[in-house]
Design goal:
heterodimer, A: mainly beta, 6-stranded mixed beta sheet, 4-stranded antiparallel beta sheet, 0% helix, globular, B: mainly beta, 7-stranded mixed beta sheet, 50% strand
Chain lengths: 112, 114
């Protein structure tokens, strides 16, 4: 079946550091891939998405590239801010299906 | 814009009690979902609905029931609560049937079962 694997957290960084959160997936066909972010006390919200191989999703300085050859969708940001502290979820929507499958989430803590 | 609204936001139950969580969306979305979030396990799908009057089981449906009598509402019921159902519950909705649809989430409902 379809699944998503994320690196375990927490990830602790200083402000302006480079961020990478790894995400790999298992799926048949051509899934769509997503990154969601959950700020403290809030629900999840979509951060970025990619729908086909080699697509790059980007938003708020975050980027992720859909790599079919390595079945990966790693999240990156060149310079993190304290306000980026949150839990980040990688997710997959299988081709022709109705449901999103989420990874376990990675907590990011950014200190000034 | 209200978006997706969940009630109640907090609830404490005793084992064996019943309760209903209400999810309401004002975006005219067809699809609605109930997830639970537990530490170290991410979000797991409980039940979902692809339209008014329909429901389907997700990954962890046991101990829960749902109803979608109106397009804008999706109810999650616990008939006999158990401590294992202590969790944060999230409702979400989606406008699209398949393909790269975005889910819109509520703020969550924290349930504690003693």
């Amino acid at each position: 079946g379809n699944s998503v694997t994320q690196m375990e957290g927490p990830v602790t960084l200083s402000e302006e550091a480079f961020l990478t959160i790894n995400c790999t997936y298992t799926a048949t066909g051509y899934p769509s891939l997503f990154w969601y972010v959950q700020y403290p006390g809030e629900g999840l919200q979509l951060l970025l998405k990619a729908t086909k191989a080699d697509d790059k999703g980007s938003n708020k300085g975050f980027e992720a590239t859909y790599r079919k050859e390595t079945t990966s969708f790693h999240l990156e940001k060149g310079s993190v801010q304290v306000s980026d502290s949150a839990v980040y979820f990688c997710a997959l929507r299988g081709w022709g299906t109705d449901k999103l499958i989420f990874g376990t989430g990675t907590r990011l803590q950014v200190f000034p | 814009n209200a978006g997706v609204t969940q009630t109640p936001k907090f609830r404490v139950l005793k084992t064996g009690q019943s309760m209903t969580l209400l999810c309401a969306q004002d975006m005219n979305h067809e699809y609605m979902y109930w997830y639970r979030q537990d530490p170290g396990m991410g979000l797991r799908l409980i039940h979902y609905s692809v339209g008014e009057g329909t429901t389907a089981k997700g990954e962890v449906p046991d101990g829960y029931n749902v109803s979608r009598l109106k397009k804008q509402n999706f109810l999650l019921g616990l008939e006999s609560a158990a401590p294992s159902q202590t969790s944060v519950y999230f409702c979400a909705s989606s406008p699209t049937q398949t393909g790269p649809g975005e889910l819109f989430f509520g703020e969550g409902s924290r349930l504690t079962v003693l």
